[in-house]
Give the backbone structure.
Amino acid sequence: MQVLKYAVPRTVLGAALAGAMLFGATAAAHAQELRIGVRAGPEAMDPHYMAIGNQIAAIKNVYEALVSQDEQLRIQPALATAWKLLDDTTWEFKLRPQVKFHDGSELHARDVKFSLERVPRVAGPNGGLVINTRNITEVLVLDSLTVRIRTSIPNPSLPQDLARIMIVPAHIGDDAQVAAFNSGKAAIGTGPFKLLSFKPRTELLLERFDSYWRGPADWKRVQLLEISNDAARLAALASRRVDLINFVPYGDVAKLKKNSDYTVLHGDSIYIFLLYPDFRAQSDLITDKAGKPLASNPLRDKRVREALSLAVDRRTIAATVLEGLAKPANQIIVDKFFGAIEKPAPAQTNLQKARELLAQAGYPDGFALPLHCTSDRLPGDAALCSALGQMLAKVGLDVKVNAVSRTVFIPARARGEYVLSLAGWGSLTGEAGYTLAALAHTNDKSKGFGAFNFTNYSNPGTDAAISVAMRAMDSDRRRLLLSGAMQAVQEDYAIIPLVQLSSVWATRAKTLAFTPRVDDETLAYFIQAVKK
């Protein structure tokens, strides 16, 4: 097959280094201060408001959950020291004693009850964390350090689900809104840092919490600066405005590695770019080549969705568009995760078959539609979006590419304003159930399923398979059921996997040390200064 060439963004490293003067004179390093330049900061300081990765990564510096996850997403004790399953629908958690909140109050089981019950009430524009608490029906306080959680159905993955539910003190009250968290009034956690100030899309300033139960952090102050422009973020590192940056532009990784002034850390990420076709019956956004709306939505036809998948050259995307720092994805989660398809068939590129499928579906001349994606969330999102537009054109589709800020994309997609969208997704629990329940099940608020199913996909057979798999308590049986449900979603081309990303950070040479996380999180407590 002929290898197609696509426009790749010009490397930004040269411009970044040359433009470092834009930030003024080189800043002197402040003792015990860590400054991190992030591509995307938090949207709000309310820990239950949103579930997107950049939000969770930031708030974990301030708040904690009952359980935590290590760099490979393995569950570890946190505010809970132990937990056990009493019966199929009842879990009991023992809390860590003498844990202090930032205001000096002590962690109590009633704080856990308040926090878990608060989640569905305060969900933000992307559904919040409802998917993580969907099955919880009752939270009982047995004593100050014991909480019992009952679920509507067996939920063997409850500890994994609770790793993202941060605990706040009950005394903040039911009326605490996002503004109260952003101002710092309600932003009270048990984490290693206290909130000093927060400016959305600009800066998060933190101060060390000396009474932290793990022991004080190395850093007296931490500053997270949102610098969404890749060149500006690199320039901030070069000028010493920041000490560390995340999401290093893929086009500059090789040059940074050769430059002795920098240290580059990277590894596999759990984030996969997925293509989401919409399943509504009709949309004025999808037209013929002359601009006349079609009578029905062609994306509802499985042949059309398969044609979309066949039109995508994943190898070229991974090797060229994303500079060799991605790899083709053959399913919608990481291959080795619990419940993944064990040996997924490699995704194929076949332009001739794609055209034939479109013709069989009644669209021999193709059709026109917009493709929406983010421009500032994950590495290469806008570049990949542009490449996809070119690839889909090869099979006769007129695609208008729209790369927009995540602050526009996230709420608009949740409102159902897109018919074809590209977005990154990571199964943050490290298993298939989270992704299947969130993305592939029919949106059903009464059951807590489909919280992130913004495409109107609904397949009763798939729903049944997911439902049965999610409640299976036997580990081996559950793995097989989840894998079967994943296969059903795959064969329906309900969501089309494209490429799995890499995580890349950069620091000034020999200054900082930390272990890269597969979830891309940059947690200041686990970053150490290199002793000279």
In short: Confidence is low (pLDDT under 50) at residues 1-10, 15-30.
